[in-house]
Amino acid sequence: MKDTLQLLIINSLESLKENGVIEELPESIRIDHSKDKSQGDFACNIALVLSKQAKCTPRNLAEKIVSNLTVSDKVDRVEIAGPGFINFFLSHESNTSVIENIIDEGEGYGSSNVGNGKRVLLEFVSANPTGPLHVGHGRGAAYGATVSNLLRAVGFEVNNEYYVNDAGRQMDILATSVYLRYIGTEKFPDNGYKGDYIKSISDQLSGIDKVDILPNVKASSDDSNDIERYMDDLIVSCKMSLGESYKVVFDTAINNILDGIKRDLSGFGVEYQKWFLEQSLIDSGLSNKTIKTLQDSECIYEKEGALWFRTTDFGDEKDRVVVRENGNHTYFASDIAYHLEKLERGYDKIINIWGADHHGYIARVKASISALGHDPDKLEVLLVQFANLYRKGKKVSMSTRSGSFVTLKELCDEVGNDAARFFYILRKSEQHMDFDLDLAKSKTNENPVFYIQYAHARICSVLKQASEKFADSSAYDLSLLSNDYEVSLIKSLNRYKGVVQSSALNYEPHVLAYYLRELAGNFHSYYNGSEFLVDDSALRASRLLLISSVRQVISNGLKLLGVVAPESM
RNA sequence: GCGCUCGUAGCUCAAUUGGAUAGAGUACUCGGCUACGAACCGAGCGGUUGCAGGUUCGACUCCUGCCGAGCGCGCCA
Is A34 helix (H, G, I), strand (E, B) or coil? Predict the structure, then answer.
């Protein structure tokens, strides 16, 4: 419908151009849904945009545009309002036709092909496998999964990917922590992983010698400045004492945790096409090869025994180390190789969803993409702000190392997947968000997700009773749907497709969530103000068709959000 | 100190991406079940959009400077 109106405007503008009223045609013409029904169904601001070059007032220009509009049977009338908006009032028939479209297309209604089959790689969560996912990760998981659903719905081919940091010092700290629990030492270091899950993993170890690795350590655990070196010494001692068995401890630890992460995400309705292991970049030699490539193109220099990547040449604030003095690659080195590998897989777009604490890495990753001869704009980084957790009005601080955190699974068990998924995406991702655990747990009825699900269940209930009480009747007449409730409901239905598209293209799932709430609200008002199962069969059939289409849209929308649309609750 | 993300009703958040009178939920005050599910509906109350300038037909939105919050600024991940 927008296209039709755009065409009408363009035709009018072209004739105005011939008459010399305007000089240039605009690049694009915005047609928006009106927010108030006194402003019709669609509004166009083109007269305000062009008034300067037309050298007349916006209202004046609007009148000229309108007088040149060709008549369409889809448009009842056109008005000029406010500073010069052109408001279109559509015919009742063109508004109600959406109902039949929804019924015809069913579950497919709302999807489109604006993505044109372009391939997108979407990486999200990617939390280090050093412990179970906590509620902080939940936001990224819900957001990523929903963005993925939305992009698929509008015609992109999307692959979801989780990057597993299974190499590096943190993993050694994890393995050492597990071993220390296994031998049951009393002197567990403060900077080890202290969560209860470490003990559970150590319980699964058997047949490995219990050697006290603490005496071999030189640095002191009492010196707070030395605490990280103390940990490094512990790791070395652990590796030396265990020999071959170290790998068993290491693998047991990571496999347990990774399995748990996979299970939690799957239970949360989040599916991945690929779990990409950092270790595979090292094993395949890609990490080394990438650094070699950068060295050949003279992007790398040596300073104080380390290799530095000249990222400042590509807009970063300072140069970054890729190979440490001790010969180990940094996390950044793996990341360069990983992004190169992603690009070489041939995606049209690469999206990373990161926690807001990683924003400092965007510049250096983009720099590395440029340095390797790729287009840095192919990478889009979406930042998700932290969720501050509150319990009994007090902020809960969380840390994986100290083991004090609320896990994602605990949250889902307490409030349910639907409420958790919905709650997470209800806020714009870059908005800081307060997650009140007591509110989510104790007052779940106030969560808007139930409000929407309730509308769906109510419609199902009405439809069920209709089919029991009345024989089939397809003789509907949509022109009968003319009371205020019906008009605003139909207006909302007409917006759905556009909402899905903008929600997807802007990576803003909350827009869809708010829309569904509004649609459900319109339905609840309708329900309380009108009776559906009336004696007049044509009116009854029309109203039932209308609420069937509402049910379909709610169901389709909730599915995109990963929320169940129940027939009863 | 520098950088990033923010600041909207008592509280939690929206605002068609620069549009018309800034809207929902919650809290509070009234009212509505012998109709298809009251997990609902209706009415009211609630605002100098952190502050001060600027850009233009038009600013919560863009620019500048302050104030405040969170996060970054390591040869950690």
Answer: coil
pLDDT, tens digit, 9 for 90 and up, residues A202-247: 999 888 888 888 776 665 555 555 677 888 888 888 888 888 899 9
Q: Is the CB of A528 under 7 A from strand B?
A: yes
Q: Which CATH superfamily is domain A2-90 in?
A: Arginyl tRNA synthetase N-terminal domain (3.30.1360.70)
- The domain A126-153+160-271+385-442 is classified under which CATH number: 3.40.50.2000, 3.30.450.20, 3.30.70.260, 3.40.50.620? 3.40.50.620
Encoded amino acid at A56, one letter? C
Which residues partner with A163 through β-bridges? Answer: A276
DSSP A138-188: HHHHHHHHHHHHHHHHTT-EEEEEEEE--SSHHHHHHHHHHHHHHHT-S--
Of the segments A167-176, A265-274, A362-371, which one has the largest average pLDDT value? A265-274
- The answer to whether residues A269 and A409 touch, using CB atoms and an 8 Å cutoff, is no
Q: How far is Cα A52 from Cα A75, in angstroms, rounded to an integer?
A: 28
Indicate left, alpha or beta for A106 from its phi (over 0: left) and psi (-120 to 50: alpha).
Answer: left
Listed in order, the ranges of chain A carrying CATH 1.10.730.10 are 96-114+447-560
Residue recorded with tokens 């489109």 = A112
- Please compute the mean of the pLDDT values over residues A453-461 and round it to a whole number: 96
- Name A513's Cβ contacts closer than 8 Å, sequence gap at least 6: A422, A425, A426, A448, A561
| pLDDT tens per residue, range A521-556 | 999 999 999 999 999 999 999 999 999 999 999 999
> Does the C-beta of A49 come within 7 A of strand B?
yes
The Å distance, CA of A532 to C1' of B16, is: 31
User: How is A362-420 classified by DSSP, letter by letter?
Assistant: HHHHHHHHHHTTS-GGGEEEEEEPPEEEEETTEEEP-BTTTTB--BHHHHHHHH-HHHH
Measured CA A491 to C1' B20 distance, in angstroms = 19
| Cβ A372 vs Cβ A340: under 8 Å | yes
Which ipTM was obtained for this model?
Answer: 0.95
Q: Which residue is nearest to nucleotide B18 (CA to C1')?
A: A49
- Measure A350 CA to B21 C1' (Å): 42
Nucleotide B40: nearest residue by CA–C1'?
A524
**Residues forming beta bridges with residue A349, ordered by sequence position:** A120
Beta-carbon contacts of residue A57 (< 8 Å; ≥ 6 apart): A51, A84
Contact of A496 with A555, CB cutoff 8 Å: no
- The CATH classification number of A96-114+447-560 equals 1.10.730.10
For residues A131 and A143, the answer to whether their CB atoms sit within 8 Å is no
Angle between helix axes A417-426 and A408-415 (nearest 10 degrees) is 110
In this complex, the answer to whether residue A428 has its CB under 7 A from any atom of chain B, a nucleic strand, is yes
Q: Among all protein residues, pick the one whose CA is nearest to the C1' atom of B5.
A: A430
Sheet of A85-90: strand order equals A31-33, A42-44, A85-90, A75-81
DSSP bridge pairs for A379:
A350
User: Among all chains, which residue has been given the structure tokens 């806020």?
Assistant: A427
